[in-house]
């Protein structure tokens, strides 16, 4: 059912409910007013009650000839009816017995504990109230019909205007969604509104932008992977085609070159798969308690040949001999190795790299953390490159043909490994001075 139809149906139900409510209020108000009159002037009611009870007693506990009797207090009442034994024995006034039973004020008659009859009475004020009620009930159908007609026309116009205004942003939102389905990168939503429709529109726009970013990232990833695969594949293909065309056997140097390219391809594929699993949360960790100082010492020994080859001064300082962390050793070593080898690559010959392992307490976080600082005296990272250094295939030197054969995935894998251990990485860098990577792990 459309919103316009729902509004019209709701308005119609509301109108009927209001009319029924007015009818109920009028009905209740009559009885309240009737009883208030009794409470304000009880004496005539008590006198009339006493006279009828005395008549019953004086006539031998009988209502014989009560219909022709005269009662002094009856002059104060416009309507009187005596009911006993299911019959009307005495009546004064214009109303029928049924009308008095329904709307008259009930005065019970008793002798001792015995109920001898019931009086239904109306004094002049009560009779006027009854007359107003009767007149109102007589007019109510016409008033209700006129009100229903007038209100219905007004409601239809109001509903049409309201429904048009209410459904206008919905139509715009639907139009924006249809634009997204057709591939429009900039759909139009009513974001200027201050209500829920504006909030929905902003959420849809942000969702569309997120999806567009994800799609751009996917396409960029495909392009980067293809680019990285192309170079080694072309080298391997060229060497093999040349050997096939000439019929000459591959020399040891050519075989070594092809082997290096195959290793490069294998490393790229494994790193892409590894990063994809980490980002998707599909890598299951098996943490154990490890001495982080010992792990960093193991790391420096594995990279010793790299720093000696470039004559880089590599130093390690640890505050304590043992700093215990719960980690998967292979994953943490992989993360730290990627960061350290990145520092070695960007540090010129004769430069310095220092590693520092310590425990720290941070003001914005609970508990203590282990911190590994890897500081180099390399070229540094520019401000425009710094936010992207953990992106896949991003290289701050914008060179895709590294002599070292790097894939541009090392820092991305390092960050995901650290995040998987509930840690994080901070980077500070100054162009021409160097870079500091700070890795935090919960103790």
E-strand count = 11
- The topology string of helices and strands comes to HHEEHEEHHHEHHEEHEEHEE
Head-to-tail CA distance between termini: 59 Å
Oligomer: single chain
* Sheet with most strands: 5 strands, mixed
Report the portion of residues in β strands. Answer: 15-25%
Output mean pLDDT: 81
Rg for CA atoms: 48 Å
Low-pLDDT segments: 399-405
* Strands ordered across the widest β-sheet: 6-8-9-11-10
**Total of helices:** 10
User: Total domains, how many?
Assistant: 3
Topology:
Elements: H1 3-40, H2 42-58, E1 77-84, E2 87-92, H3 97-103, E3 105-111, E4 114-123, H4 124-181, H5 196-246, H6 252-279, E5 288-291, H7 292-302, H8 304-309, E6 313-318, E7 324-327, H9 329-346, E8 352-361, E9 368-376, H10 410-420, E10 424-430, E11 434-442
Parallel strand pairs: 6-8
Antiparallel strand pairs: 1-2, 1-4, 3-4, 5-7, 8-9, 9-11, 10-11
Helix pairs in contact: 1-4, 4-5, 5-6, 6-10, 9-10
EC number: 2.7.13.3
Catalytic activity: ATP + protein L-histidine = ADP + protein N-phospho-L-histidine
Protein name: histidine kinase
